[in-house]
Amino acid sequence: MNASPHTLTLPSPIVSARAAGDRMATVSRIAAAIAAAGFSFLIASVWLAPDMLTNLPGYAALLRSQAQVTMGPGASLVLTLVLLCHAALAVGALVALARSFAAMARDEPLNEEAVSWLRRAGLLVLTGVVASILLQVPASAALTWSNLPGMRTIAISLGSGQLAGAIGGGALLALSRILHWAVVVRCDHREII
To answer: What letter does residue 193 receive in the DSSP assignment?
Structure first.
């Protein structure tokens, strides 16, 4: 029997879930590449154009304190290490998210591998938030270390970026926990049937 031209055929939910998982994995990989390129640019700027870094929003607390910022070789090295730490955590979280989406795009979207990668992504995001708060201290100290004693500054601040990261990382961890229990329930259901 021929279907009428007005019949709507919907794709299989499994096929559309695979396609969505593949698309999200690709988007996460592209975001990881963009983040890596951005951090590479910042690290190159530390050595090639250090004055540009004083305009970054992350150093707003240091600049509000009216401290004199001097970029010596030690400051460049410390800032490079701080940026490498941030880059490793950000790119690692995006890669873990991409691997989680790729695992969800397989035949069985609810699997323990996808949950594991999602949990890792959440932990990396939360670690990045804590690191972004705590690493402000060595960064601000390095930027003012060449000043005279009494003119050195240590700055630490909590901004909306850190709060958004904490909410996002917490959401990823909560989602991974929910998906873990969904995997457990699905396995129990299969054993019963």
So the answer is: -
In DSSP notation, 174-189 reads HHHHHHHHHHHHHHHH
Structure tokens at 160: 């909306």
Which residue, among 163, 165, 180, 166, has the nearest Cα to 119 in the 3D structure? Answer: 180
Chain centre distance of CA 125:
5
The CA distance from 41 to 39, in Å, is: 5
pLDDT (tens digit per residue) in 90-128: 999 999 999 999 998 887 888 899 999 999 999 999 999
- Residue whose structure tokens are 């150093």: 59
Give how far the C-alpha of residue 119 lies from the chain's centroid of Cα atoms, to the nearest Å.
13
Q: How many Cβ atoms are within 10 Å of 85's Cβ, its own excluded?
A: 16
Identify which has the larger pLDDT, 114 or 12.
114
- Higher per-residue pLDDT: 168 or 105: 168
